[in-house]
Amino acid sequence: MERITEHPILQPEARPPVNFTFDGKPCTGLEGEMISSALYANGIKIFSLHKKDSSPQGIFCANGQCAQCSVIADGLAVKSCVTPVREGMKVGTLRGAARLPRAVCVSEFGRVEELDVDALIIGGGPSGLAAAAELGKLNVSTLVIDDKDRFGGKLVLQTHKFFGSVEDCYAGTRGVDIAEKLEGQLREYPSVKTWSSASCLAVFSDKKVGVLRGDKYYLVRPKALISATGAREKSLAFPGNTLPGVYGAGAFQTLVNRDLVRPAKRLFVVGGGNVGLIAAYHALQAGIEVVGLIEAQARCGGYKVHADKIKRLGVPVYTRHTILRAEGKNGLETVTVAAVDEKFRPLPGTEKTFKADTLLIAVGLNPVDEFHAQALEAGMEAFVCGDAEEIAEASAAMFSGKITAHKVLKNLGVMVSPVPQFWFDRLEVLKSRPGAIGTPVKEKHSTPVYPVLHCRQEIPCNPCVTVCPRKSIKLSGESIMTTPFFSGDCIGCFKCLLICPGLAVTLVDYRKDPVNPSLALPFEIGRGLVKKGDKVRLAGWEGADLGEAEVLDVKDFKAENTLIVIVKASPETADLAVSIRLYDAEAGEKASEELKKAEDDTIICRCERVSLGEVRRAIRSGLRDLNQLKAVTRAGMGACGAKTCSSLLLNIFRSEGIDLKEVTGFTKRPLFVEAPLGVFSGVKCSTEAEEKASWSGF
Asked: Residue ranges per domain, the chain?
C-alpha cells in the first residue's frame, strides 16, 4: 500500500476500510475515498486503454475537468477522481470505447425541485467562501455549491503557510487551516446554506441554474449569480505527455495532501511558478525524492522564497530549460530536458535524461469562466471573483470574494454605498507579481540575539511584522510589498521563525557563547530526520553549501507544526545560513541524439488522441475554424469538452503564423459536465444488474 502514515503537517484520518476489486484483484480503499486515490494507494496507475491505439491512460487533473482517469465501476464508465469507492464495488480497466449497460427504467417520474435564493455561489474555494461570509453577515439568502466532498477548493491541498496580509487573508496560516476557518465561519450565518458534492451543469437562458446534488437535480433561480469556479491547469505538448505518471501539479497535491497517498518515488517538475515550486516542496514533505525542476524563463515566476526553499534542501532548479520528451512503456520511466536560447529553442548538446516515475506539469492556469459567460448571455445579474476572474494567489482570491460580495449587496439593494476604493487598491497589492530582489548585506547588531530576515524579494507579505512582541521587525515602506528589516530589541521567542511562510527567518544567539553563536533554523520536512548530536550541512539563502554544523537541539512546536533546529554556527556563517541541506543533486545522463524524430506524434487532444501532425496538416490545408478542425480530426470532441486541448490548439495556430483573430473558437457545449439524462426529468433508472439485485431480496 502506498499510503502516507507520517507527515510533518497532516495527520491521517481514521476511516473504515472499503473492500473492492480492480480487474478481479482484491483491493482496499477508505470510506469516502475517490476511486483514483484508492487505486493509487494499491499501486495501480493505469486506468484505461485508449480506444484508438490501446495506449495506457492514467490520471491528469484529478479535478473532474478531463476524462483521462475514467474506469468501469459496477458496469458504468465513470471519472474515478470524482467517484467514491464503495464496499464490494467492481472496478475495471476501461478498454477501448465504453459499452453502455442495458438500462431498466422504472416507471417512476419525480418532480424537479426549484429553489429561489438571493445569491447562488458556484464554487466553495477561497473566493466563494469569503463572498458567502460577507453575504451572510447581512442575512442574505445564499446557497454555496461545490462539486467536491469538502469545501476550501485548492486550500485543502496546501500545507504551507500563506503570504499576504494577516489582516486581510490569514497570512502566516497554512492553507488547510484557512479552509477550515472559512468554512467554519459560515456556520455563524443561518442565511447561508452549503451543498458539497453538488455540480453545476449549466446556466440556462431562462435564468435558472441546473445543479446536480448526488442523484437529485435542482433548478435554482438566483437574483444574483457569483462564479467562484477557480481555474484549471494548462496542458503541455511534448512527446510522451499522455503516459501514466505525467499529470498536473494539482492532481499530485490532491493525492498527497488531501488523500495522503504517495503516488511517486522519483519526481520531476516542469514549471517554476508558485504551483510547481510548492508542489515540489509538498513532495519532499511526503518523503518523495524530487529529481529536479525546470523553468523556461531566466528566472522562476513564483516567489523567490518558494524556489529558495527547495534549493536549500538540495533540489536542483534549472532555469532556461525545457522538456524534450517523456519516455516509458506502461508508465513514465525517463524525462529528457535541454537548455534553451533566448527564443526558447533547445540548444544541441545540452540534453540530459533523468530517471523519474512521475512528471508534474505546472505551466499555468486557465480561468473556469464558462458559467459566468452563460449567465451574462442569459441576461442575469452575474458576478465573478477569484481565479475565475483573474489568476492570482489564494490570498488575493479571498479578498476578491469579499469585494464581489459587496457588489452583490449593492445590486440587491441591501447596501447603498459603493465598495471603498481602498479595497480595490489592497486587492491590487495582493495580486502583485514578485518585485525587485535585494542582495544580502552584512549588518551589525547591538543585541546578543537577533533575527536574520532572508526574504529579499518584494512580495505582499507581513506576518513577521505583526507577530513580533517588541515590534522590532518593520517594513521598509508603507506597503506590504516592501521587504522587512530588524531594528530594535529581540527576546529570542522564535515567533517570527514559526510564522514566516517562506521559512526565511533565522535566529542568531550569542547569549551562551559570545564567540560561536547558536543558530535556530525553521524545519518542516519531517520529524526524526534531524536529531540532537547530528552533523548537518548548512545552506545559504539560494542554496549555497556553507559547510557542516552540529545539531545542539531540536524543538518541536506542534501547534505550528514546525520544528526549530538549533545548530552550532561560526561567526562567518551565522548570518548567512538559512536551512539544512538534505539531498545531493543529480547530474543526469547524456541524452540520445534522436530526440526530434517523433515531434509530430505528440498528442494534443488526449480524449481522442489527436496528434500534433494531424492538427498541423489541417491548419495548413486552410482550416481556421476550431469546429471544422474538430469535424476533420476529432480534436476537442472528447469527454472533457475541449477543456484540456483548446489552449494547445490555439498555440499551434500561433506557431503556424496564424493571427488568432482569423480563428473561430469552439461552440461551447450547453452542459459543463456529463450527467445522466434521467436526472433532468426526475426519472428513476437502474441497470439490469441493479434490477436483478433488488428483486433477489424478495
From this structure: 1-109, 113-231+367-430, 249-363, 449-581, 599-662
